[in-house]
């Protein structure tokens, strides 16, 4: 079969497979839930650099690449994971605070605020169809709302954003996305879809029973995102922008 045609069939299968698996007759799309780092903002490289340098300062060995695998988890979980592996014990609350504070300091210094190419155009396109656009992030940056309003003016429902401050459990736990459905107006899983870029984030969305499109904007292999349970994996935000009309037709038929 022609390759392009084959990938179209695989794509369409993703929607029917989801409906069958979750016993839904159809989608009833009301909202798109967006992860933030690596989906809207091209910030993951700065997160990885800041984590690596912070860990070096605290004498905990790590690689910059591994932080892409932990992306989406809250800071204390990442810190404890490395502390257990490298020192064989949990981090103390004081250590967690100091390490996370230093990491945030470095990230603020390095982050240039640049957007993922086509992120603005895609969100605008989705918003123009009348769908609610929401952010569900593990990030706890204090200036988040201002930043989002500056880069995506009027496009996101910033009052109902889900951040690190709103949840007890971070991704890969489903709580952030379940909270997103609630804040979007007590939606059912078939009334929203998720755009994610990280394996832990995909796991969280899938655990919340949501149809999940992964865009691979980092250095990890596509396979990691498929294995995490993504319904569709795309190489970029541009690919999602280009394919949206086809997906929208499936989501609204
Ligand atoms: Ca992310």
What does it look like?
The chain is an alpha/beta fold and 253 residues long. It is built from 11 helices and 5 strands, in the order αβαααααβααβαβαβα. The two termini are 26 Å apart. The structure holds calcium ion. Calcium ion is lined by residues 35, 37-39, 71-72, 197-198, 201. The site of calcium ion (CA) has 9 residues, from loops.
Task: Describe the secondary structure blueprint for this structure.
Blueprint (H helix, E strand, L loop, with lengths): L2 H19 L9 E4 L9 H14 L8 H5 L4 H13 L5 H18 L8 H10 L3 E4 L8 H8 L23 H9 L8 E5 L2 H9 L3 E5 L6 H6 L4 E3 L2 H16 L1
Parallel strand pairs: 1-2, 1-3, 3-4, 4-5
Helix pairs in contact: 2-5, 4-5, 6-11
Short summary:
Helices cover 50% and strands 8% of the residues.
Secondary-structure element string: HEHHHHHEHHEHEHEH
Looking at the structure, what is the overall shape?
globular
Integer-rounded radius of gyration: 18 Å
The number of distinct structural domains comes to 2
- What amount of the residues lies in strands? 5-15%
CATH superfamily of the largest domain: HAD superfamily/HAD-like
Q: Which structural category do the helix and sheet elements fall into?
A: alpha/beta
Order of the strands making up the biggest sheet: 2-1-3-4-5
Helix fraction by DSSP (H/I, runs of at least 4)? 40-55%
Report the end-to-end length measured between terminal Cα atoms. 26 Å
Q: Low-confidence parts, pLDDT < 50 over ≥5 residues?
A: none
Count of strand segments: 5
Mean pLDDT: 93
State the name of the first-level CATH class of the largest domain. Alpha Beta
> What small molecules are bound in this structure?
calcium ion
Helical segment tally? 11
């Amino acid at each position: 079969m022609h390759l392009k045609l084959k990938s179209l069939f695989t794509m369409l299968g993703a929607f029917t497979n989801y409906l069958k698996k979750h016993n839904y007759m159809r989608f009833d799309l009301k909202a798109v839930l967006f992860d933030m780092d690596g989906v809207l903002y091209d910030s993951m490289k700065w997160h990885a650099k800041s984590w690596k340098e912070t860990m070096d300062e605290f004498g905990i060995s790590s690689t910059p690449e591994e932080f892409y695998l932990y992306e989406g988890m809250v800071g204390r979980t990442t810190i404890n994971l490395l502390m257990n592996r490298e020192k064989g014990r949990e981090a103390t609350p004081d250590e967690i605070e100091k390490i996370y504070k230093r990491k945030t300091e470095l990230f603020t210094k390095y982050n240039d605020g640049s957007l993922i190419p086509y992120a603005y155009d895609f969100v605008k396109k989705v918003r123009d169809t009348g769908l609610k656009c929401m952010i569900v992030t593990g990030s706890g940056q204090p200036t988040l709302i201002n930043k989002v309003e500056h880069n995506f003016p009027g496009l996101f429902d910033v009052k109902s954003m889900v951040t690190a401050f709103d949840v007890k459990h971070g991704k890969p736990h489903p709580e952030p996305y379940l909270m997103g459905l609630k804040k979007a107006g007590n939606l059912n899983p078939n009334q929203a879809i998720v755009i994610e870029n990280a394996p832990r984030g995909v796991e969280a969305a899938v655990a919340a029973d949501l149809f999940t499109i992964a865009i691979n904007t980092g250095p990890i292999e596509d396979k990691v995102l498929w294995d995490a349970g993504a319904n569709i994996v795309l190489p970029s935000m541009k690919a999602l922008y280009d394919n949206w009309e086809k997906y929208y037709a499936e989501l609204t038929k």
